[in-house]
Amino acid sequence: MEAGTPTLPKAKINWVNLLFIISVHFLAVAAVVYMAAVQFSWWSLGLGLLWLACSSISITGGYHRLFAHNAYKASWPLRLFYLLFGAAGVQNSALKWSADHRVHHTKVDTVKDPYNINRGFWWAHIVWIFYLDPDGKATGVKDLQADKLVMFQHKHYLALAILMGAVVPFSLGLIWGDPIGAMLITGFLRLLVQWHATFSVNSFTHIFGKQPFSVDNSARDSFLTALITLGEGYHNYHHRFQTDYRNGICWYHFDPTKWFVWSLSKVGLTRELKRTAREKIERARESVRAQKTAATTALVEKSANAAHVIAERADSAKQAIAETADSAKQAIAETADSAKQAFAETADSANALAQSVLEAGRPTAPVMVDESGRRG
Ligand SMILES: [Zn+2]
Ligand SMILES: [Zn+2]
After folding, report:
1. In terms of DSSP bridges, do strands 270-271 and 73-74 run parallel, antiparallel, or are they unpaired?
2. Ligand sitting nearest the alpha carbon of 60
3. Which end of the chain is flanked by fewer CB atoms within 10 Å, N or C?
4. Tell me: the pLDDT tens digits for 157-203?
5. Which pTM was predicted?
């Protein structure tokens, strides 16, 4: 695997994407203001929720698990549904989305990964969309290029996105007298919520969560992300077994996309659902456990070695300090002795001097004084 060295993007800013994404954020706020201050309609809000459900499942069950990974087969009415509501998700055509996503899987965490997490959370979440794709073309998707519906959507993606994202919601809003509200809520507020949910798979689940199935890349299993992405949060499992139609493999894992695909298989709309064999999954788990145990043992050994080196260095330092203290003690004692001796010698000299001064001052013969007081 190539090292994921963060580098500055060489591509130029994609102004259309950048301005559109900024506009959608403002229009989503406008939708809330409109509901609060101008007109509130339960019908418009309900339409927004319906579009959120249909468009989200079209990205998770359609764009991702069907088109990008071929995890199952779907009949043409379901593929058409996915392609129409997928266009409303405004995340590019299914063909280009799948091409980018396949590169993400094969080149994950490297400079070739379109949403390489090594470039940071925000790059992986949204910033990568602000740049023009240097390659531009959808490669590695020959299987999808053979699907006429996929190619129809790819060719007319922009028109379909406008139709499904704005025109249809506006027209339906006319029925209950709130076309502006229906378009703002369904077209923009719903789109903003859906975008950030999808984007969180590229950002959150490559940073936060557990890695029970593989430690070879940054993908993680995150229940919280699964909650807002119809089950796409079990991303560690997905990166390990990308053709499995399930992301959450246990029955209690929150994976509505898996339930949706499985339910439709009962009425013939989906078929050939791919599942990874239980033994293979267990082997992956075992391998990760063994790798984690080996890593822990290596860490413990490294810590023990480090502690040993520290103890040895501490002993040497202690010994050096003790030796230095002894030398200092001896030097002080010697200096004190010398000082004492010098002092004693100085005192002796002073005494001798005092003695000589005294002796010099004493009269050598007695001074005679007569009765008149004169000296004799
Ligand atoms: Zn990923
Ligand atoms: Zn995938």
Report:
1. antiparallel
2. 2
3. C
4. 999 999 999 999 999 999 999 999 999 999 999 999 999 999 999 99
5. 0.78
